[in-house]
Amino acid sequence: MRKKRTGYFLLLPSLILICCLILYPTIKTFVDSFFNERTQLASLGKQFVGLENYAKAFTDEHFIKTLIWTLIFTFISVAIELVIGMLLAMLMNKPFKGQNSVRASVLVPWAIPTIVSGIIWAQFFSQNGVINYILDFLNLINSNINWLGTENLAKLAILLADIWKNTPYMSLLLLSGLVTIPKDYYEAAEIDGATKIQQFINVTLPLIKPTMMVTILFRIISSLRVYDLIVAMTNGGPGGSTETVSMYAIKTYFNYGNIGYGSALSIIMLIVAIMISMIFSGSLKTRLE
Question: pTM above the 0.90 mark?
């Protein structure tokens, strides 16, 4: 009993932090989503409106637009990062001189704070930035392109910046799965006459699937709540076309002072993230069994 009490006592600081920084804000946000409360009218108090804020969200054209863009951004970025990350992981898994230095250097983009990465890429894609300079040097454009001032080009720029930023993280997690695969499997497959592609499909993929599923899950959740990268690059522009649900919820809550509706938007995204997590967790459990 004394050992148990000591264990609980050592866990207490972490539990207090979790309750204060995660559990309490989540519960408060959930409760606030059922009320109509505005900071501009704080003296009038808050009024209970039930599911009205949630119903409003699904009739809000701007919310639907931001939700679609958030899902598209998540799908495209995670898919490309998975492919490139797998290629990098397989290259880093091969023994060669300076392997540790290469592994460390690959992680540099991921180690840079996201807001700093956003500012750097915003400069690259500015009208007088490096991207236009390179394209002009190669005679591919006649005049400077307004990358961040055009909807589709701004979305492309954000995707490129996010892929550059987070691919190293994905490659590192995939590499951790690759190093656990015994070399004997590949030797046996090679003796049976399997090609490199067949070895990848029949040996590498099945054995790395649990790691891959967890990696994809982490990146999907992270992409769904993307905020600082886009704020630094476009601040949701042009015309709100690159604004994500996280940005819209924060603007609604803090900038516009609509606490109830902003809370409802946050809870909706929390539900979406939980649903995706449950799907991937169920799939992972099936694979392991």
Answer: no
